[in-house]
Amino acid sequence: MDRHAAFARGNPRAWRYRPDISPFAAARDSSIEAQSALAGLLPSDAPLVLLEAGSIAVPPGAIVEKQAVGVQMVAEALKPAPSDDRVVPLGDADAAEMLALATLTEPGPFLSNTHLFGGFIGIRIDGRLAAMAGERLKPPGHCEISGVCTHPDFRGRGLAGLLSTIVANRIAARGEVPFLHAYASNTGAIRLYESLGFRIRCEVSVLALRRPSI
């Protein structure tokens, strides 16, 4: 959470992101103290999402709303980023359109202020936000590509691959390792990322948890 400290809620035993930015959370370890701290961060009106390699401990009292298997992919031999005049930076002024596109296409958790993670770029076609991609988790020396999505009206034009390549090369130019996540069942996305120079590093478990309603 070093680079995202301003977005954090919790304590050293368990952290979560601000609820308008991201549902991701993590406990320090599987100890009773850490798991109890994580349980204290659980909301009742929306899930917290845990993403880890291997199995995930469920904190006491938590309800498992969803579980899935994903893959973590890291850049191994990136394709060079092409130049495309259609690509524009996205920010606060585009937040409503970004949320609408992500809500429609479901690239992963995307909330009203997820764009504050920064680094988002997009392509507009006929004034509409056709596709976007950006940055999310930033562990030391690494940066995650996320929010990659294309409106159904504009699929099949290579927009997701183009934007992902640009974001990945920008991350690499900073001396960081680009990485990303995809559901293991999303073979189309995995093939796309492999074609861009990513390889599967490991499988990950995904759990969406919430507090029981009273």
UniProtKB/TrEMBL annotation:
Residues 73-214 form the N-acetyltransferase domain. InterPro entries: Acyl_CoA_acyltransferase (IPR016181), GCN5-like_dom (IPR013653), GNAT_dom (IPR000182). PROSITE patterns: GNAT. GO terms for molecular function: acyltransferase activity, transferring groups other than amino-acyl groups. This is FR47-like protein. It comes from the Bacteria. The lineage of its organism: Bacteria, Pseudomonadati, Pseudomonadota, Alphaproteobacteria, Sphingomonadales. Pfam families: FR47 (PF08445).
